[in-house]
Amino acid sequence: MSVSMCDSLVEDKTLSESGEVDHCKVLSEDIGGLVLNQDYSDVTFVVGGKCFSAHRVILAARCQYFRALLFGGMREAQPEARIPVDDTTPEAFGLLLQYIYTAKLQLAELTEECMLEVLALSNKYGFSALEKSISNFLLKTISIGNACEIYEVATLYSLDDLKEAAAEFIDRNAVDILNNDAFLTLSLEAVTSIIKRDSFCASERAIFKAVEAWWEQNDLPSETEIEKTKKETLRKELLGGVRLSLMSIQELLHTVRPSGLICPNTILDAIERQSEQNNVDLNYRGVLCPEENIATMQHGAQVIKGEMCAALLDGDSTNYDMERGFSRHSIDDAVAGSKQEAGIVVKLGRPCIINHIRMLLWDKDMRSYSYYIEVSMNDVDWVRVVDYSTYHCRSWQSLYFRRRVVRYIRIVGTHNTANKVFHVVSLEAMFTRSTEIMEDGIIVPQSNVATASKCATVIEGVSRDRNALLNGEVVNYDWDSGYTCHQLGNGGIVIQLSQPYQISTMRMLLWDIDDRCYGYYVDISTNQKKWKRIIDNTKKECRSWQSLVIPRQPVVFIRIIGTNNTANEVFHCVHFECPDTTTSVSLPDANENKVDGAEVGDISEFADLAILQNSGEDFEFADAETKSTNQIEIPDDYNRTQRFQNNNPSGEGRRTMRHSRGSLFNQNSQSKT
């Protein structure tokens, strides 16, 4: 059937509606037709006795290496030059040329050996896109048989992502890797780096036997004194990765000693360390599962101590109430009883490397808890990794500590503001690569933690919305909504953070639709019993944005008390955050300054350290000694640009607080879970 000219034009997919012609495919095919073609070629590469004709301009356009080589004034730049290439095979070099001319390569058709050769060439000549594609393909096809070789190549060419991925595969299959012949072909550096990893989780006896086999397979000559010295150095380097203190005495005596690889004194030292060191101090190996919760039943974890154990690890952090959905233990037992019987204990399915725990405390009312967390490898010797026994905490806890190999996790509640029972709804344990700055075991936050998403809450104050102060809204507020307040001389505004944080800055927005000014002071506490005055602005006229700087110290509760309002008898606060992420201040912590906590009614020597008002001027410390070195410029967006004009309805600006117009928050009514 004939096709009309009109039909053929309609079917032309290379012409877009905008009139753009796209013949890239034709161009690629034409240039690809030149690969290994002697027509118009002006340079020849000799690889393993085989000649490859190429075109300088194409090579130079595709690769900086060839651009410098062929047009850089060296002998290779001479016409009709023949360039030897000695570090690869003809097959691999031909495939690289094919990629240079066509930007295509069928990896699935290559042998593993050839693919690694092409990877080496892509690294040498700077083809990073090809290098990444081959690395990704290797990761999809990694196996027990090729993992060691992939790790070796990635190490040799500094392919960090591929190296780490191969190492994680080797870690997860440590026993099979040790029993595979490919392990014996690794270089000394590769073997040493693998067995030194905490996450290379195999028995120490199996590791030693594999190292012994590697040494026999790769035995070095030792005829001269120089060779003997070198061999001894390498032997010590290799065996330095074996953790003898993790082997039993029987294994040391009947496996290690007969090998002759380790001197008797070193074996005796290992036995001595076992007997003298606490179990938690031994350098254990554990499974590493980055960013994965390993405290689950799927990973073999189980709750072995505590009441109502089934709920803790079921992964359900939403369906719980006063009767179900949590695990618990009696706080009286934790405080007065035997430590071995106290708390909730979770046994992981196998030793794991963790540095992060997330835990949900029962939070259906306003109660707070205190607790500490310990970890162990044998359920006998424990080390405390988190100690919040003197702090009031609520809802989700995000806890970080130094990475450890752990088999048991023990959570011990020490206080409940409602009753004598400690309740935990959910527990997660994992290794995370995200980092937090820590000081004395407490997070130094780099972003605002006074938010509902971080489980902070307003526990005292009057507002139409409980957490209006913490919702981040700094524009949409008016005479009737968008703020939290309290009657002057009666109560205050109290914010509770979910857990202790090391805080050195705070920021808040005072209601500023008209020109009124406020006086106030700020107290902080970790348990609502002992308060410390950190800011005293009772004798100042403050308005709009306030940035407060204090010596860094642990904070759970922030109490803001208004003492004056030039318009009426109510103190209004629109927004609160800590830390203040708009400033950058470096101050010593409270311990370094040796500042004693002031009781309520006392004025701390740091009470007037920082007052930042909406004046557009530089912020300065009130202390004359620090004034010259600590200044913070106020961003332009601190000023509220949209304000009501002086058209205030009669009496509206002097309205006093009526509890019926909002909600009064307090924590006097507690449920008895």
Summarize the structure.
This protein is an alpha+beta fold. It is 26% helix and 27% strand.
Topology readout:
Layout: H1 5-10, H2 24-32, E1 43-47, E2 50-54, H3 56-62, H4 64-71, E3 81-85, H5 90-102, H6 112-125, H7 128-140, H8 147-156, H9 160-172, H10 174-178, H11 188-195, H12 204-217, H13 225-239, H14 249-259, H15 264-276, E4 302-305, E5 327-330, H16 331-336, E6 344-361, E7 369-376, E8 382-393, E9 396-416, E10 421-430, E11 438-439, E12 442-443, E13 457-463, E14 484-487, E15 493-510, E16 518-525, E17 532-542, E18 545-565, E19 570-577, H17 590-593, E20 619-620, H18 624-627, E21 631-632, E22 663-665
Parallel strand pairs: 1-3
Antiparallel strand pairs: 1-2, 4-6, 5-10, 6-9, 6-10, 7-8, 7-9, 11-12, 13-15, 13-22, 14-19, 15-18, 15-19, 16-17, 16-18, 20-21
Helix pairs in contact: 3-4, 5-6, 6-7, 8-9, 11-13, 12-14
Can you give keywords for this protein?
Serine Threonine Protein Phosphatase 5, Tetratricopeptide repeat, single chain, eight-stranded antiparallel beta sheet, 4 domains, 673 residues, 22 strands, seven-stranded antiparallel beta sheet
First CA to last CA: what distance? Answer: 84 Å
Total helices: the number is 18
- Strand count, sense and closure of the main sheet? 8 strands, antiparallel
Overall domain count: 4
